[in-house]
Amino acid sequence: VLGWGVGQLSVFLLERTALFQQLGGSATITWRFILVAAELGGAMLLIAVLGLAFAAWRALAHSSVTLRTAWARPSREAGWRRWQLDVLLLLFAAWAWWQLQRSGGSLITTPNGVVHIDLLVLAAPTLLLIVGALLFLRLFPFVARGLGIILRRRRGLVPALSTWQLARNPVLYGRLVLLLTLTVGLGVYSQIVNGTITRSQVRHALDVAGADVRIPLEPHDDPATILATIPAAASTLVSRVDTQYLGEQGQSTVAVQDTMVLLGIDGPALSTVLAASGSDDVGWLAALRSLGAATTPLGLPLPAGTAVVEVQLQSLVTEVMVYAKFGGANGERLVALGQPGAAWQDFQAPLPRDLQQPVSLQSFIVAPKKEEVSMSGQPLVFDQLTARVGTTEVPLGSFEQLDGWEAIGPSTGDAHLSATFGVKGDLSAAQLRVATLRPGEWAALRLRVPFTVEGYLAQAAGDTEAHARQPVVRIGDQEFAVKVRQRLGQFPGVADQPTALIASRDHLQALLSYGKPTTERPQELAPSDPTRFQSDLPTSLSPTALWVALQPGAQPRLGPNAVTKATALFVQQADPLGNGLYVALVLGFGCALLFSLIGFLTSNALTIQARALDWAVLGSLGLARRELLWIIAAEQGVVLGGSLVGGSVVGLLLAALTRPLLQVVAGNIANEPAHVDWLGLLLLLGGLLLAFAIALVAMLVNVQRRGLTRALRLGEG
Predict the structure, then answer these.
(1) Which residues, 6 or more positions from 3, have their beta carbon under 8 angstroms from its beta carbon?
(2) Alpha-carbon 619 to chain mean position
(3) Is the Cβ–Cβ distance between 570 and 146 less than 8 Å?
(4) Where are the domains of the chain?
(5) Cα angle 416, 420, 425; round to 5
(6) What single string gives the DSSP state of each residue in 313-341?
(7) Would you say residue 255 has pLDDT above 50?
(8) What distances in angstroms separate CA 259 from CA 250, 340, 345, 633, one per listed residue?
(9) Continuous segment of H or E residues that includes residue 633
(10) What is the C-alpha to C-alpha distance for residues 109 and 116, in angstroms, rounded to an integer?
(11) Is the previous residue joined to 111 through a cis bond, with omega within 30 degrees of 0?
């Protein structure tokens, strides 16, 4: 009853603080106890009563002499030993961690695309924290014993008596060490997780915005005029949505507005090609051709043993479900990823277990979410796509890395990177080899294609011929396009394509010039016969967005249409899920710290009271009062210092082991590596040490004035 009242009073006071108000963002949340809280409270009360009854039953089975002996030195009775309980908890924690790693993250996507939190998220960190603290508790007596052996070589009784007592009887301080280790471990874990949440929100905001500022453009807008209103621009980039098409599925129509990409090459590779070919446009096209001249593979081959593929995507697709198609030696399988949105989404796609090696990620298929999908469904091209295999780390985007493939981590075997695309009315997919990565160069792949070498496809309305794609060439002027067709025949790597439409050399060079602002309007790319393709491709491909990187510290005035990184960050910081995790960790650590201080003072008071006779005997043997106080201070100092070290190690290991839990924040983004702010961590540990030191000094002053005087008088008697 008292706990229920304290809980209501605490919520009444805390809901008026800024910490709790962050949970609702701009809205106000009304806090109240629900039926689940009452049920949990009743369950906790039942567990407490059963625990007390069990302890009382064991105590009543022994005489007072036996109980005194058990208090002085731990008993070794038959039955469950402590190490057996430790091993049992360790097995449970290892199983929870293995399940969490096996699932690939803390979010589960059901077959119908619903995403919810894995309940294992709540159990795994708690079990790991308790097991880590228990393991440290079992090791602590050996550490104290070794410290005692070292200190015995020094003169004086204070160090020797302190460490001897700690190593002799762990019962007196065992619960205190466990409580302090749990508190410090929770504090370190909270600090790391909260720092990682902040870091992931900043990086996610940059992914959502794409740059410091992103300004959507209308067809009549002039990028140079808009850029002139932003004097703080450090570099700029102009992009376009290349085409718009409809993918047909039965009686339904899926509207997709996206980039159709034939070839994607990273910035450094393009720079190398441009430098090697000099000013010869045919030379650099020939160099590009060598990158795609090899036979196109089926898809992205996955390393042997891969269990989960993560796909990160952003696309303007509505009311659809996205599937990943995997191929193996014994056939193909579809795995539902979920429903993409306008923000970055990170989907976990576990590989079907019945597929036989070699397994490859073939393509992605989009279909109306309420209909069945077939293996030959409409392939979908994403303007931003990440396929991650065999690794736990994927870097997120920034303005400096807006385009290109990126390889991360070790691997074995060559990896052939391919782009998969499809067009209206044709359910087949075309593949294009874009690069070959050698062993040791790849394990994770990232594709950023809106600003790479661009290919444009168009299809005649009603054309039913197989592979009927009639793209046109528009490179600079028509005369140069004719020369390209005559000398190169076809664009490199594109099967069944007599011609293709690609960007000019000048446009490619501008895309690589991130170091300085540019106001040059991109070329107006258009098909040679607009009337033939007017149903699929607009007559003029106008720029659609202006991307701007601001100078450090700049805060220009922007129009209402601008999408800024600061705005996206504000939205992320108002996310209820991320704020809920932040508030829960901070509040949990605050409560644990309060209980630890109370337990620290209570445990020390009871320990001193139980050892009053020992202090009296030592006093009668000639130890001064100051030396007795130093013995108490040395014992508690070793307990505090050991708990700080043990809790720090446990918290750091817990953050490293449960890194997939960080996927829960910031709108289901990719798993964020644990970020350790060492300065903040040192300040946290210093603050904890200062708080407990103040409590220890206050306790010693009280003991000196009251308890120790009474004990010394007892010794004199």
Answers:
(1) 41
(2) 58
(3) no
(4) 83-207+574-716, 241-541
(5) 155
(6) EE-EE-SEEEEEEEEETTEEEEEEEE---
(7) no
(8) 24, 16, 18, 70
(9) helix 625-657
(10) 7
(11) no
C-alpha span between 354 and 335 (Å, rounded): 13
**Taking phi first (over 0 means left), then psi (-120 to 50 degrees means alpha), and beta for anything else, what does residue 319 get?**
left
Q: What's the rounded Cα separation, in Å, for the pair 657 and 568?
A: 29
Question: Distance between CA 352 and CA 335 in Å, rounded?
Answer: 8
Q: What is the per-residue pLDDT across 102-155, written as a single tens digit (0 to 9) for each?
A: 665 566 666 565 556 666 666 778 888 888 888 888 888 888 777 777 776 766
DSSP run (H or E) holding 549 = strand 545-550
Residue 396 DSSP label: -
**Each residue's pLDDT tens digit, 564-591:** 777 777 766 666 666 666 777 777 788 8
What digits encode the pLDDT tens for the residues 486-524? 333 333 332 333 333 333 444 444 433 322 333 333 333
Confidence check: pLDDT of 527 > 50: no
Summarised one tens digit per residue, pLDDT across range 590-610 is: 888 888 888 877 877 777 777
pTM to 2 decimal places: 0.51
| pLDDT at residue 465, rounded to an integer | 34
For residue 387, give the 3-state DSSP assignment: strand
- Report yes or no: 376 and 427 within 8 Å, Cβ to Cβ: yes
CA distance 289 to 285: 6
Cα–Cα nearest to 703, from 640, 621, 635:
635
Residue 479: phi and psi, rounded to 5, are -65, -45
Q: CA nearest 133: which of 181, 68, 95? A: 181
Nearest to 520 by CA among 543, 500, 498, 501: 543
For residues 681 and 20, give the distance between their C-alpha atoms in angstroms, rounded to a whole number: 24
φ and ψ at 54, to 5 degrees?
Answer: -65, -40
Q: What's residue 116's pLDDT?
A: 63
User: Strand 331-338 and strand 345-350: pairing?
Assistant: unpaired
Q: Most confidently modeled of 65-74, 270-279, 445-454, 648-657?
A: 648-657
Rg (CA), the chain: 33
Place of tokens 């359910």: 427
The mean pLDDT of 288-303, rounded to a whole number, is 45
Q: Choose among 354, 360, 349: nearest CA to 302.
A: 360
Residue 117: predicted pLDDT: 64
Higher-confidence residue of 194 and 259: namely 194
Residues facing 419 on adjacent strands: 432
**What is the SS3 string spanning 482-534?**
HHHHHHHCCCCCCCCCCCCEECCHHHHHHHCCCCCCCCCCCCCECCCCHHHCC
**Residue located via tokens 């990232």:** 446
Cα distance between residue 357 and residue 51, in whole Å: 53
Report the pLDDT value the prediction gives residue 433, as an integer from 0 to 100. Answer: 32
Residue indicated by tokens 């594709």 = 447
Q: Do the bridges between strand 233-239 and strand 308-314 make them parallel or antiparallel, or are there none, so unpaired?
A: unpaired
